[in-house]
Amino acid sequence: MSIESITNRIKDEASAYADKITGEAKAQAEELLSETRIEADKIKKEAQERAEKDSKTLIERRESVAGLEARKMKLDAKQEVIGESFSAALDKIKSLKDEDYLGFLTNQLKAFADEGGEIQLSADDIKKYGAKLGKEFAGKLTVGKDPANIRGGFLLKQGDISINASIEKLVEDQKEKLTGEVAKLLFPDA
Length: 190
What we know:
By secondary structure, the chain is α+β, with helices and mostly antiparallel strands. It is built from 5 helices and 4 strands.
C-alpha cells in the first residue's frame, strides 16, 4: 500500500469524521443560540416596561456571548478532528503489512547504520522484526533485547546519544508542519 493511498484513505476517513464532529458542533451551537434567543425574548418583554434601550443592550450581549461560544465549540471540534487525523495516521503506519513495515524500519535505519548503535524496538516489533533487523544490519547495528515504551518505529542509542525515530515522534514532527494543510483539507469552507 503506497503512502499516497494511505494518505488519501486517512484524508477520507478524517474528512468523514470531521463532517460528523462539525455537524454535531453546529447542532449544539444552534441549540445554544435557540435557547439564548428564547431567554433574550423573555428578558426583552420584561425590560420594555422599564426601558427599551436596556433590553436591546442585554440582547446584544447575550447573542454575542452565544456567538463566541459557538465559534469556540467549532474550533474545539476542529482541533479534536485534526488530532484524531494524526492519530489515525499513526495507526495506519503501525498496521502496515509486515513486509511494508519492515521496509519502513529498514529504510529509516539505513541512515544510521554506518555510525553503529543499538536499536530499541517496541515489545511487538522485537518479536516480529528483531531477528530480521539484526541480520540486515549485522556488524553495524544491534537489536536490544529490552523493549522500548513506544508504539512503533525505533529508538537508537549511539553512546550517550539517543535518537527518537518512534512513529509517535515522526508523526508529531509532521503534525507541526502539516496541521495547517490538514485543516484546509478537512475544513475547506473555514
